[in-house]
Write a structure and sequence with these properties.
elongated; 199 residues; 17% helix; 56% strand; 1 helix; two-stranded antiparallel sheet; alpha+beta
Length: 199
């Protein structure tokens, strides 16, 4: 009787441990199995801060931008983003400028039906390039930058649209020797709209 009780107890423990191990393995596999990836192609405008003309003479401020982002995850998402802004300091006959950022972001994006509101924070690199038209003198500068923002996505299973608003800040002063644009710790806002493809 005691042997049978001991055997039943041992079998019960083995089944319990086996069930616990199975549940742990399933929990570990579930995020990987259901993690979604996406590609977001976007365009928009820069405004505020240092975006646009730095002087009021003979300068237009189109400050348009475009970019591409790749992300993977469910509620917590890791995202890599490439961003390009032509004529960042405005369009003029005396100089041409552009700005490129490459940023790694952590995105918190819970899904509520077809809607996915999100917030994000990220760190990356900012490359600024400027050319004086008359002398063809060109200089560029690369700094660290960080961004903070959020937005909302409306999508079905594979296709959707996304609106985004962010603040971008450089961590170091801009240095472009020989050019009038220097000594700024760049910061600006950007608003974009894009198409998102999920897979």
């Amino acid at each position: 009787m005691q042997k049978r009780t001991v055997l039943c107890t041992m079998r019960g423990r083995i089944w319990t441990r086996g069930l616990q191990l199975t549940l742990v393995l399933l929990a570990m596999q579930a995020p990987a199995a259901h993690a979604q990836g996406y590609i977001n192609a976007f365009l928009g405008n820069n405004f505020g801060g240092d975006a646009g003309c730095q002087s009021a003479t003979s300068c237009e401020s189109p400050a348009s931008n475009l970019g591409l982002a790749f992300g993977r995850g469910n509620v917590v998402v890791f995202e890599e983003e490439f961003f390009y802004a032509r004529d960042f300091f405005g369009k003029s006959a005396t100089q041409s400028t552009n700005l490129i950022t490459l940023t790694s972001n952590i995105v918190i994006a819970p899904k509520i039906g077809y809607v996915r509101p999100y917030g994000l924070i990220g760190l990356g690199f900012m490359k600024t390039r400027a050319t004086l038209t008359a002398s063809q003198l060109t200089n560029s500068d690369t700094n660290l930058d960080w961004n903070l923002g959020g937005g909302v996505e409306i999508s079905g299973k594979h296709v959707g649209v996304r609106g985004d608003l962010r603040q971008v800040h450089a961590l170091q002063n801009l240095t472009l020797p020989g050019l009038p644009i220097t000594g700024l710790k760049l910061d600006f806002n950007r608003a974009t709209a894009g198409i998102i493809l999920r897979f």
